[in-house]
């Protein structure tokens, strides 16, 4: 089946620290990969995406590279800010077949000043 | 422009009652999706629509759940004879078309079954 496994949280860092949130996937087809973010009190919004192997998605200082050989899509940011505190979800969507996002369990990130 | 809207934002109901949740997608988006977010299960897919048809209903948890979409726009998710395990945040999303495209999410409806 299709599934996404994320690094367990919660994760607590100090401002300006380096962030990595691990994400690996299992897919029967050839997926597109996404990171969604849910800020406190807000809805889910797309942070970045990659649609083929070796693509790098980037937005707001966050990056993730689609690694087909390791079936991974780890999220990174070089210097986090308090405003990055949120829940982060890794997800996949198959190009063929079932048209749905399959989400990881989410990782709660807290950045302390 | 306007994003995806959902109503009501909060719904408290008694076990055994029926509830209807509404989603207004972004204008022009042909694909519409329902998900459920709960503490124990994370984010689960429920159903999607392409236009007014729902090719994949496999995610609906039981036959108490049904959904429809009319005019290629508004969608309603109906839960009959609600149970406490139905308590969750129900999220609606829309996208321009099917495929690996960005899905835009609404704020959700928080359903509490007493």
Structure description:
The complex is a heterodimer of chains A (113) and B (114). By secondary structure, chain A is mainly β. Chain A has no helices and 12 strands. In chain A, the strands form 3 sheets. In chain A, strands 2, 5, 6, 10, 11 and 12 form a 6-stranded mixed beta sheet that branches. Chain A has a 4-stranded antiparallel beta sheet with strand order 3-9-8-7, with no helix packed on it. In chain A, strand 7 and strand 8 (62-65) form a beta hairpin. The model of chain A has no long low-confidence stretch (mean pLDDT 92). By secondary structure, chain B is mainly β. In chain B, strands 2, 4, 5, 6, 9, 10 and 11 form a 7-stranded mixed beta sheet that branches. A 4-stranded antiparallel beta sheet of chain B has the order 1-3-8-7, with no helix packed on it. The radius of gyration of chain B is 13 Å and the shape is globular. The interface between A and B is medium-sized, with 25 and 24 residues.
Quick summary:
With 113 residues, chain A is mostly beta strands. Chain A is built from no helices and 12 strands.
Roughly what is the average pLDDT of chain B, rounded to an integer?
Answer: 92
Give me the secondary-structure category of chain A.
mainly beta
How many strands appear in the DSSP assignment of chain B? 11
Could you tell me the radius of gyration of chain B in angstroms? Answer: 13 Å
What sequence of helices (H) and strands (E) makes up the elements of chain A?
A: EEEEEEEEEEEE
Rg from alpha-carbon coordinates of chain A: 14 Å
The chain pair with the largest interface is: A-B, 25 and 24 residues
| Unreliable sequence segments of chain B | none
Summarize model confidence as the mean pLDDT of chain A: 92
Share of helix of chain B, binned: under 10%
Structural class given helices, strands, pairing of chain B?
mainly beta
Report the total helices of chain B: 0
Q: Proportion of β residues of chain B?
A: over 45%
